[in-house]
Amino acid sequence: MKxxxxxxxxxxxxxxxxxxxxxxAVFSTFVVFGIRSLAxxxxxxxxxxxxxxxxxxxxx
Length: 60
Prior knowledge:
The structure is a single chain. The protein is mainly α. The protein has one domain (2-59). It contains 2 helices and no strands. The longest helix has 47 residues, at 13-59.
């Protein structure tokens, strides 16, 4: 039992896995917020196009 615990404390691979997991979490958070921002901007763009297109059609 003591030797197993000692091996686990010396093992650095678990720390590396945790670090990679944290990096993936941070990057995925940025990706989600980036896509969300892009979607909101795109939605605003199409809303303006729709409003201006409707206004142009109603004038004729």
